Amino acid sequence: VTVKTDNEEVDVFDLVGTADAEDVRVEVGKRRWWTPLQRRWFPLTLAFALVLSAALAGWLYFAQYRPDRATDQAVQQTVLKAATDGTVALLSYKPDSLDHDFTTAKSHLTGDFLSYYNKFTQEIVTPAAKQKAVSTSAAVVRSAVMEMHPDSAVVMVFVNQATTSNQNPDGSFAASTVKVGLTKVDGSWLISSFDPV
Amino acid sequence: MSDDNAVVLIAATTRVTNTAGAQQQPRSWRVAVSLTREGGQIKLAKVEFVP
């Protein structure tokens, strides 16, 4: 038995073996829309695989690699240093260099906390520090990262602070714990919140 | 922090009541705890008070 298709004559029994010739006539005779695609299955599969792997690579880069790099050990060290330096600057001042000390401190701050600190130092700390000759110096003894995100972080710092004034010339010593919130602004980490525990 | 070791900082408060007169008096502690993985279990290896 032979069946005439568009292109060629085919012996149906060669193609389908024991199948019924009536059924086969229908299948071979009709050209479906995907028939040209079937012939090019290899390049099509290859193109599909390429697109799929490119998409996967892109997703891995943006969803996995970049956030990992932005929160890795090196960045955590940077964040810890920023929190430590900022805390020390924030809590250390002497009566004869108040303005300079607060300007230095403000360079470590950002956002609402910057405006709060500005107001607080001008209205409360400066008059009191001048009147009572308050001199204080802070040191961070230990610090650790509590939260780490690509653009924000929370660090816990253990602070020791020594304070002297004309009322207390021998000085007092305070040990405290502070949760320092940091935000990445233009590539540098600045303190955006400062909450004693 | 490594695969089998970690150091955790803890800020803790305890409340003390005793016959010497303390009534729920708060005491703050700063502690650095070293932890080690030992046979699939994480254990305290050192508890250090931070002065």
Which helices and strands appear, and what pairs or packs with what?
The complex is a heterodimer of chains A (197) and B (51).
Chain A: E1 2-4, E2 9-11, H1 12-16, H2 21-29, H3 35-39, H4 41-70, H5 73-91, H6 98-106, H7 111-132, E3 135-148, E4 152-164, E5 172-185, E6 188-196
Antiparallel strand pairs in A: 1-2, 3-4, 4-5, 5-6
Chain B: E1 5-16, E2 25-38, E3 41-49
Antiparallel strand pairs in B: 1-2, 2-3
Report on the structure:
The complex is a heterodimer of chains A (197) and B (51). Chain A has 197 residues and is α+β, with helices and mostly antiparallel strands. Chain A is 50% helix and 28% strand. In chain A, a hairpin with a 4-residue loop joins strand 1 and strand 2. In chain A, helix 5 runs antiparallel to helix 6 (98-106). The radius of gyration of chain A is 36 Å and the shape is rod-shaped. Chain A starts with a strand and ends with a strand. The radius of gyration of chain B is 15 Å and the shape is elongated. Chain B has strands at 5-16, 25-38, 41-49. Chain B has 51 residues and is mainly β. Chain B has a three-stranded antiparallel β-sheet, with no helix packed on it. In chain B, strand 2 (25-38) and strand 3 (41-49) form a beta hairpin. Chain A binds chain B through residues 141-144, 156, 158, 160, 175-177, 197, and chain B through 7-9, 11, 28, 30, 32, 50-51.
Q: Report the C-alpha radius of gyration of chain B, rounded.
A: 15 Å
Helix percentage of chain A: 40-55%
Assembly type: heterodimer
Helix content of chain B: under 10%
Q: Please mark out the parts of chain A with pLDDT under 50 across 5 or more consecutive residues, or reply none.
A: none
Biggest sheet details of chain A: 4 strands, antiparallel
**In terms of structural class, how would the helical and strand content of chain A be classed?**
alpha+beta
